[in-house]
Amino acid sequence: MSRATILSVNDLPHARYATTRHLESCGYKVIEAATGEEALSKLPLGPELILLDVHLPDVHGFELCDRIRAATSERWIPIVLVSSVFIDPAHIAEGLHRGADGYLTQPADPDVLLAMVAAYLRAATQLRLKTEALRLRNEAIEALPTGLIITDARQPDNPIIYANPGFCEMTGYSRQEVVGRNCRFLQGAGSDKETLQEIRKALQKAERIECEVLNYTKKGTPFWNALSISPILDEGGKVTHFVGVQRDITAQKNLQDQLRQSQKLEAVGHLAGGIAHDFNNLLAVIMGYANLLEAKNCTPEEMKAAVREIAQAADRGAQLTRQLLTFSRRQIVQPAILSVDAVLRGMEKLLSRLVGEDILLEFTYAPDLWSAQLDPTQLEQTILNLVLNARDAMPHGGRLKLRTYNTSVPEAGANPPPGDYVVLEVEDTGGGIHPDIQARIFEPFFTTKGDRGSGLGLAIVYASVQQAHGHISVESAPGRGALFTVHYPRALKPALSNARPEKAILRGDETVLVVEDDPFVRSLVEHTLASLGYHVVTASGPEEAIAMASDDNFHFDLLLTDVVMPGGTGGELAETLRASVAGLKVIFMSGYPDDDLVLRGVQKDGVAFLAKPFTPSALSQMVRRALDEPSR
What residue numbers bound the domain in which 284 lies? Predict the structure, then answer.
């Protein structure tokens, strides 16, 4: 039996009695009131339905409807108007407009009365449940620690119409400052343009999107926002709103950065150990042969052999340094228009010795290969590392193919981008690369060779190709070998006849001002140039060089200066001397060319760069080239 409470308001006792008897017989609880004021006083008892007589001694039923609705604004109570006289439809319509939900003429058939009561109570229950669910949902949204906003896609510029406290706490904006604005106010200088474009595209297509974007609080503090946006569609499938859930993941990002930094430190330690091992081997060779020469008890042939071994060890050390600089992208690139075929042909004998007799080495050259603008040393390093990687993948022998050809990529969105390319392929018949590690093969320090591998070979290849604005990819499967494909952008000019520097020693008789803080390097440069006929004047730093140049009787034809020195940089020194020496010719030299030094003018027009260590022939050619170039 139902125990719903019904308030019966009627000034006629017999009418109240009849109504109460019918309702109580069906299990309802009935509260009676004879006047409007009495009815209002009994509202706190929680009636779930009100049967209200239109004509009361103290107030009209329509007015009482207004007062009941005002007193019970937080919940809906069905009100059924009751009258013992006929009321015209216009009058009934007014009552419904004033807040009533239905109309009943007394005396009513008991079945009609009970059916109407049951229907309105059922509707009230359903509405109450929906209202409770909405209230609970709203309280849950308000209590969320994450940010939540709702935007109205039907309005211009898709403004925010709701923001929960979590969003306000995360951004520092109040709800009043947020509502009515587009979400763009959270963006700033550090917000990734590509991510923002992806968000805009998703909104235009009414698609869900999840991303991470850098936003800014009201105070301008940046924070990482894990954003999820979902569209809300109407029955016709049209977007009406968007719901954005936002979570501050700045702390998580910081932890990830700390982890990466820790991994980098560990990798640097691993790298330092490998470098120390290689350099100690080279130093052992240099020191050993130097001691033999110092003993002066060896034959001329033995002396020549010792000097040759020292030079080769030093050259290997220089190559190791260049590899490290390439890997770190600190190497000054000296590109030339060259033929990849010509460089590869020049390495055939070297590569044949490296792979051994149990590997069949095949070369296939394009008859009309385009030229490319590349650093010759970096190209050689790329070829060498790819061949060594292939050799290590075939410990029991196999076949290694090197191939060059031209190709054009016509379609946008492809990788590499559309354009003409010179292609170098290196294909082996080794054990292949497992899919689980294929995505990591170009990562620094990643190796599958255990203690035998440094994990730098393919990382250096990747860095070199990127510096050349090229693209490298790999196709492989376990047991099916590997194919590395390198795309180099085509150069519009033909290749130079000789991309590698000649080894000839060039002489001269001009005056060269050498500025170098390291006394050993300064002495070596001085003796080398002096032996070639140049008049050499040295300074240990910028201050001493400027003092020399201020003497009206001192004239020099070329400034050869280190880049990084105590008391100033080579770039600053050159700018100072240019103010007093018109058309000054300059050569910079450095063993660690950092990016910002390049930006300071190391590679400007009319300025040459000589990377340490360098050979006497390289020094002589650079000096001669700078002096022979017309003054600007």
Answer: 265-327
Question: Within a domain: residue 504?
Answer: no
- Residue 282 to residues 285, 305, 316, 402, Cα–Cα distance (Å): 5, 16, 8, 31
C-alpha 461/C-alpha 463 separation (Å) is: 6
Q: Is residue 616 part of a domain?
A: yes
Give per-residue burial for 218-242: e unless 16+ CB within 10 Å, then b.
Answer: eeeeebbbbbebebeeeeeeebebb
Please give the distance of CA 119 from its chain centroid, rounded to a whole number: 60
pLDDT cut 90: percent of the chain above it? 26
Q: How many Å from the N-terminal Cα to the C-terminal Cα in the chain?
A: 108
Residue 503 lies in a domain: no
- Is residue 232 one of the residues assigned to a domain? yes
Low-confidence ranges of the chain (pLDDT < 70): 1-2, 85-88, 108, 131, 133-134, 260-278, 292, 295-296, 319-334, 412-414, 444-456, 495-504, 592-607, 631-632
* Three-class secondary structure of residue 347 per DSSP: coil
From the list 495, 473, 500, 497, the residue with the least C-alpha distance to 484 is 473
* Phi, psi dihedrals of residue 316, rounded to the nearest 5°: -65, -35
Burial of 359 (0-12, 13-18, 19+ CB in 10 A): buried
How far, in Å, CA of 84 to CA of 104, rounded?
9
CATH number at residue 458: 3.30.565.10
Which pLDDT tens digit goes with each residue over 495-531? 665 444 445 678 889 999 999 998 888 888 898 899 9
The predicted model scores a pTM of 0.42
Looking at every residue in the chain, the average pLDDT score rounds to 82
Contacts of 555 (CB under 8 A, 6+ apart): 511
Burial (CB count <10 Å: 0-12, 13-18, 19+), residue 430: buried
In angstroms, rounded to a whole number, what is the distance separating the alpha carbons of residues 439 and 134? 48
Do 153 and 243 lie in one domain? The reply is yes
Tell which residue, 575, 626, 619, 569, has the closest CA to residue 593: 569
